[in-house]
């Protein structure tokens, strides 16, 4: 409102009141004239909207659509005219030296309802855009912020920022009013968030982020919408966040949705940019501890306690981290010793015969199929030994006793239902059995080696043939002896293919010798 003490500055108010009186009396001609004077008296000021809205009221009541369209299309809308979507409530109005009054637009709510029913003109985008802007002007003065937003967005469908360079600002203002006037429920906050993200992807309203981005982070964080905090942070320049608290909230949100790597990065960024903070050090320590980096966690908790020595959470987490570190070291040592023990026990496999190795491999395979098998351990009643080994009871008990002594199996000391012993299976046993089996000398070779003797060679007439070869001339003697020796050896150890090949080679050499 104008604050000029010159009484002529308030002619618009007098004309507006006169127009209202005439309208109530049903004299629309006088009313129109008064409203028109009020409208023209304040050409470049928001106060002209009193006369403008009065004229709209008259033209709607009289069904004068041509004049209504002409009024709206000729309204010169500038940023100053509807900045912040305008204000048509207030004062004071200095009627005289001792007379002051206030002014407001009467029955705006009723006018808004009927103006919302004004149809758009399919062939006139400019008119339609202005109709929506006027609706937005009314909505914000009635604190109808959802309607205000709707009006601005719809206006943008018909008019653009090249014609009205303040449209982006109006859009940002509408989003701001939605932000600060949205409901407190999760549904309300989610609805606003979805609207905002859609507009950020569609319109040039990045200025909203600069002014109110951190307010959005606060709102989402307070409602524990951590996934949306994370998604919204992608629109922000995290390097330029003025308040360290917002960086903390974004880091916390990343941790909550289990993106621990990003949470660590942001917590470390906080420490670099803003120095040590007990809450940040505590949360970062928790992330380190959860990643089994207990020593790093311990150092972070200690740094936090230097700042806040009475912090209960830091003290509790430090104690827990120290204990976990000790437990981890003990576990690693136990696993190392157990591994060495298991590996040592596999040395016995080299001396086992094939029958025992086959039974052991089959037993382990059956144990792993047992419904109670888990993490290398299984409860086994005695009858299962005989079942899994497929031997009689005496042999089953003998084999299990030997395997326990050699470390293939181990009594864990724990008992299952009905006092059934829980055994652990050497985790290296299967692979080592397969390795041993692959490295064994083929049975045929061993049998062949055993069969080689002077008597066997006599039966094969080996020595008589050697005597005959010795009589050959020197050029062929060594070659014949070489091939005959290899032929005899391969025949005795059962190498059938080699025997056939060497026989051919010896015959060929003999033919060359005699021919």
Describe this structure in words.
By secondary structure, the chain is mainly alpha-helical. 68% of the residues lie in helices and 5% in strands. The chain has 25 helices and five strands. It has helices at residues 11-25, 28-41, 48-61, 65-74, 108-115, 125-141, 145-158, 167-181, 186-202, 207-222, 226-233, 244-256, 260-274, 278-290, 294-307, 312-345, 354-369, 382-389, 393-406, 429-439, 443-451, 454-459, 462-470, 474-492, 496-514; strands spanning 89-94, 100-104, 377-379, 409-415, 421-425. A three-stranded antiparallel beta sheet has the order 3-5-4. It has a two-stranded antiparallel ribbon with strand order 1-2. Helix 10 runs antiparallel to helix 11. The radius of gyration is 48 Å and the shape is elongated. It starts with 10 loop residues before the first helix and ends with a helix. Mean pLDDT is 87; it is low at 1-7 and 96-100. Keywords: Coiled coil, TPR repeat. This is DUF2597 family protein. Residues 315-345 form a coiled coil. TPR repeats lie at residues 278-311.
Proportion in helices? 55-70%
Unreliable stretches, pLDDT < 50, 5 or more residues? 1-7, 96-100
Protein structure class: mainly alpha
* Series of secondary-structure elements, N-terminal to C-terminal: HHHHEEHHHHHHHHHHHHHEHHEEHHHHHH
Average pLDDT figure: 87
Classify the beta-strand content into a percent band.
5-15%
Q: Report the biggest beta sheet as strand number plus sense, adding barrel if it closes.
A: 3 strands, antiparallel
Number of helices: 25
Count of distinct strands: 5
**What is the first-to-last residue Cα distance?**
134 Å
Large-scale geometry: elongated
Biggest sheet: strand arrangement: 3-5-4
Radius of gyration: 48 Å
């Amino acid at each position: 409102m104008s604050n000029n003490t010159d009484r002529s500055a308030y002619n618009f108010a007098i004309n507006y009141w006169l127009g209202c009186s005439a309208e109530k009396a049903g004299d629309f001609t006088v009313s129109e004239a008064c409203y028109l004077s009020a409208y023209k008296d304040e050409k470049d000021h928001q106060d002209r909207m009193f006369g403008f809205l009065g004229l709209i009221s008259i033209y709607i009541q009289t069904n004068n659509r041509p004049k209504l369209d002409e009024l709206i299309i000729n309204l010169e809308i500038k940023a100053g005219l509807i900045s912040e979507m305008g204000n048509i409530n207030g004062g004071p109005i200095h009627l005289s030296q001792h007379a002051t009054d206030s002014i407001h637009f009467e029955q705006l709510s009723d006018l808004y309802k009927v103006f919302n029913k004004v149809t758009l003109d399919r062939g006139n985008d400019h008119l339609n855009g202005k109709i929506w802007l006027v609706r937005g002007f009314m909505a914000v003065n009635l604190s109808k912020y959802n309607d205000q937003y709707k009006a601005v967005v719809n206006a943008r469908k018909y008019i653009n920022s090249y014609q009205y360079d303040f449209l982006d600002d109006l859009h940002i203002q509408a989003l701001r009013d939605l932000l600060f006037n949205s409901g407190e429920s999760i549904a309300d906050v989610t609805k606003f968030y979805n609207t905002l993200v859609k507009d950020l992807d569609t319109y040039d309203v990045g200025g909203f982020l600069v002014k109110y981005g951190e307010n959005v982070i606060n709102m989402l964080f307070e409602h524990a919408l951590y996934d949306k905090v994370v998604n919204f942070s992608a629109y922000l320049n995290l390097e330029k966040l003025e308040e360290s608290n917002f960086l903390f909230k974004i880091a916390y949100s990343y941790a909550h949705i289990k993106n621990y790597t990003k949470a660590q990065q942001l917590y470390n960024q906080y420490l670099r940019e803003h120095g040590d903070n007990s809450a940040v050090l505590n949360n970062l320590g928790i992330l380190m501890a959860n990643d089994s980096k207990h020593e790093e966690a311990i150092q972070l908790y200690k740094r936090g306690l230097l700042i806040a020595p009475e912090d209960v959470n830091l003290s509790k987490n430090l104690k827990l981290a120290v204990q976990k570190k000790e437990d981890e070291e003990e576990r690693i040592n136990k696993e190392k010793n157990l591994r060495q023990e298991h590996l040592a026990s596999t040395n016995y496999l080299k001396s086992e015969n094939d029958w025992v190795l086959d039974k052991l491999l089959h037993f382990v395979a059956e144990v792993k199929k047992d419904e109670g098998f888990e993490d290398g351990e299984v409860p086994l009643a005695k009858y299962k030994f005989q079942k899994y080994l497929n031997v009689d009871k005496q042999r089953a008990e003998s084999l299990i006793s030997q395997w326990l002594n050699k470390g293939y199996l181990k009594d864990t000391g724990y008992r299952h239902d009905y006092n059934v012993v829980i055994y652990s299976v050497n985790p290296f046993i299967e692979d080592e059995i397969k390795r041993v089996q692959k490295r064994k000398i083929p049975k045929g070779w061993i049998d062949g080696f055993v069969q080689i003797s002077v008597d066997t060679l006599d039966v094969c007439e080996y020595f008589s043939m050697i005597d005959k070869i010795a009589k050959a001339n020197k050029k062929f003697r060594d070659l014949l002896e070489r091939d005959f020796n290899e032929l005899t050896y391969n025949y005795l150890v059962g190498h059938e293919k080699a025997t056939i090949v060497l026989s051919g080679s010896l015959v060929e050499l003999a033919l060359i010798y005699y021919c």
